[in-house]
Design the sequence.
């Protein structure tokens, strides 16, 4: 007894004809056809290949985010190609901080696999101080040993968020004779800072 087909794959799901052949000692053979109903019994999860690694990227200039790109992984399965879904797409815009991207593979037979990568966007941009006064001289009362000095205070901005903006002196303070350096310091929530001064 011999069979023309002894194994089936996932592509053979359904009714498949199988030829059965029998031969006697004299070489006389007879053939019959049987129908084998092949059903899917897929218990294997799909697999990924070429998974991207974690990505760290600096925020785009003057932005608190970055457009990040990568190549999605491939999906393979013992019963077909499988399908891929993602929580985020290449070229999506990600905020400063860490975002987890999830990849899900589905083979269509109830089996799934997941994988992740982390997108970290860093804020490496210093705050900006604008309208900083220039150095200037102040006349004093000959009978006084100092002067009250006023100026238009500068402003600070940041691409993300300021943590603090401080000055060593304030407009309206009394200054002694001689030169005094006034320094302003702006710091953001990512630890970046800048200082500017006038005399």
Sequence:
């Amino acid at each position: 007894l011999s069979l023309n087909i002894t194994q089936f794959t996932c592509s053979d799901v359904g009714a498949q004809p199988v030829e059965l052949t029998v031969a006697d000692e004299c070489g006389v053979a007879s053939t019959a056809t049987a129908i084998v109903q092949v059903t899917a019994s897929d218990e294997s999860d799909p697999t990924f290949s070429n998974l991207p690694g974690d990505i760290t990227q600096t925020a785009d200039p003057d932005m608190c985010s970055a457009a990040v790109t990568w190549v999605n992984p491939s999906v393979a399965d013992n019963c077909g190609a499988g399908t891929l879904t993602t929580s985020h797409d290449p070229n999506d815009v990600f905020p400063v901080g860490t975002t987890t991207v999830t990849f899900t593979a589905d083979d269509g037979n109830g089996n799934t696999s997941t994988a992740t990568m982390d997108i970290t966007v860093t804020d490496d941009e210093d705050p900006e101080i604008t309208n900083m006064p220039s150095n200037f001289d102040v006349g004093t009362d000959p009978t006084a040993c100092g002067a009250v000095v006023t100026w238009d205070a500068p402003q600070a901005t940041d691409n993300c968020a300021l943590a603090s903006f401080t000055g060593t002196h304030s407009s309206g303070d009394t200054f002694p004779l001689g030169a005094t350096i006034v320094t302003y310091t702006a710091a953001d929530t990512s630890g970046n800072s800048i200082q500017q001064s006038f005399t």
Q: What stands out?
A: Residues 41 and 189 are 55 Å apart (CA to CA). The mean pLDDT is 90. The longest strand covers residues 112-122. The chain is about 0% helix and 45% strand.
